Amino acid sequence: MSRFQQARFLVSAAAPGQFPPDLGAEVAFAGRSNAGKSSAINAIVGRHGLARTAKLPGRTRLLNYFELTPGKRIVDLPGYGYASAPEAERSKWLPLIDALKERESLRGLFLVIDVRRGVTEGDEGLLAWVAPGQRVHVLLSKADKLGRGEALKALRAATAQLEGRASVQLFSSMDGTGVAQAQDALKAWLA
Ligand code: GDP
Question: Which domain holds residue 163?
Answer without folding.
Answer: 8-190
